[in-house]
């Protein structure tokens, strides 16, 4: 059972010791890998569904991770999500927004409209304004982890796939900054000094940007002397990203914003394409697998009951708001209505990004997070299995999945790579 206000962090009732941490990693890896391969072998669904299903089964039997995240769960989540965000950022060309103002407006409108709509709908459930705003910010980002992983596994290519990467990167950026601003305002309103709070915020953002610049610079220097497609070079790159994420956690800056900014800096300060093994090889792929199991287990039946209709209202409102913004601007941004609808569906998932943001809010502002916890965790639980299937459906709707024989070959190649 998840104890939301507990300072002790355990998995399956085990005390946090080196042996239990190792058992946690091994157990999650085995369960997720078996479930993922079973799903891939028996259905046409992505392996992500199997990874998540393993976590859901663990949660159903009361063996889910506790919140806020800590110990092995936090380390794995930081590293895996950091790798994914760095990858996504390194593939996003921001000059696209300058050439296509309709797409830039789509990004701003879908994030803003969904946040405002969620906040007002939460108020209809007698949720206080601070909790409603927290829910709105936490529900803003669509997870790069789900959409990116599904697109890569299925070999999707095209406008919707590229736009989904761009929009998930940008709304993650908006959400992390908005959450930081809210925490700053809350701290000042709770008896603190607004000037000091803003100064602290500025230092934090500059430090985050500095660490991101160091990671981007280190990657650039490594690429000048090494072929990043080589397995040994990929291990070095993985080490650079992992060290930067651990350093970000140690000095207290965002482990979501830092790798995303690093990837964006890398891609947008150089004309060269950045190519390396997916998730930086086998170790990164294993971390991503464990990430989905962890997120899938971050709920209990009690949480579902507590979140109740408020969580369902949040999900419906969020999807409708994003769909309205994206579809209404699809023509102006150079996409068809069908592509706009498909892109809207790829923004459906709510997963690891929201979970990490919620964990950080619980740690920093437990009173503020208290009301949002059941709503957000219940929302994640509902969408954790539906989200990957929705992304697959959207990519098929957009016609961006390869023909079945090629897709089957792609999955066989994934098995050989150990993904």
From TrEMBL:
The keyword Transmembrane belongs to this UniProt entry's keyword annotation: yes
InterPro entries: Cation/H_exchanger_TM (IPR006153), Na+/solute_symporter_sf (IPR038770)
A Pfam short name: Na_H_Exchanger
Cation/H+ exchanger transmembrane domain location: 33-395
Keywords for this protein: Membrane, Transmembrane, Transmembrane helix
Bilayer topology: Multi-pass membrane protein
Transmembrane segments: 48-66, 72-90, 102-125, 131-152, 164-186, 198-223, 235-258, 278-296, 303-321, 341-359, 371-395
Chief subcellular location: membrane
Protein name according to UniProt: Kef-type K+ transport system membrane component KefB
Compartment list: Membrane
């Amino acid at each position: 059972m998840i104890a939301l206000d507990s300072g002790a962090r355990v998995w399956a009732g085990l005390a946090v010791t080196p042996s239990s941490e190792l058992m946690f990693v091994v157990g999650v890896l085995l369960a997720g890998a078996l479930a993922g391969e079973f799903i891939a072998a028996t259905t046409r669904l992505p392996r992500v569904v199997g990874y998540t299903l393993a976590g859901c089964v663990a949660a159903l039997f009361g063996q889910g991770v506790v919140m806020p995240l800590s110990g092995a769960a936090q380390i794995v989540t930081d590293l895996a999500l950091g790798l994914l965000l760095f990858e996504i950022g390194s593939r996003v060309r921001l000059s696209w927004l300058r050439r296509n103002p309709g797409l830039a407006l789509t990004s701003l409108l879908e994030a803003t409209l969904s946040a405002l709509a969620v906040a007002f709908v939460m108020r209809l459930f007698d949720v206080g304004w601070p909790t409603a705003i927290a829910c709105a910010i936490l529900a803003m980002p669509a997870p790069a982890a789900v959409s990116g992983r599904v697109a890569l596994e299925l070999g999707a290519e095209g406008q919707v796939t590229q736009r989904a990467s761009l929009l998930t990167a940008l709304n993650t950026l908006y959400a992390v900054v908005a959450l930081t601003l809210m925490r700053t305002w809350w701290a000042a309103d709770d008896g603190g000094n607004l000037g000091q709070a803003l100064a602290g915020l500025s230092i934090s953002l500059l430090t985050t940007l500095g660490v991101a610049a160091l990671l981007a610079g280190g990657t650039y220097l490594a690429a000048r002397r090494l072929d990043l497609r080589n397995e040994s070079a990929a291990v070095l790159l993985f080490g650079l990203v992992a060290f930067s994420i651990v350093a970000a956690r140690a000095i207290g800056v965002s482990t979501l914003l830092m790798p995303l900014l690093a990837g964006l800096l890398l891609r947008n300060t150089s004309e060269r394409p950045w190519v390396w093994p997916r998730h930086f090889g086998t170790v990164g792929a294993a971390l991503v697998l464990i990430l989905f199991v962890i997120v899938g287990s971050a709920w209990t039946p009690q949480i579902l009951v507590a979140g109740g209709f408020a969580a369902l209202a949040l999900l419906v409102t969020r999807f409708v708001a994003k769909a309205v913004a994206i579809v209404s601007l699809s023509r102006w941004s150079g996409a068809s209505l069908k592509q706009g609808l498909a892109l809207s569906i790829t923004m459906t998932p709510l997963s690891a990004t929201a979970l990490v943001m919620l964990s950080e809010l619980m740690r920093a502002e437990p009173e503020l997070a208290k009301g949002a916890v059941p709503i957000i965790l219940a929302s994640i639980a509902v969408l954790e299995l539906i989200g990957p299937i929705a992304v697959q459906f959207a990519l098929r709707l957009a016609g961006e999945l390869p023909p079945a024989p090629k897709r089957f070959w792609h999955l066989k190649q994934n098995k050989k790579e150990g993904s």
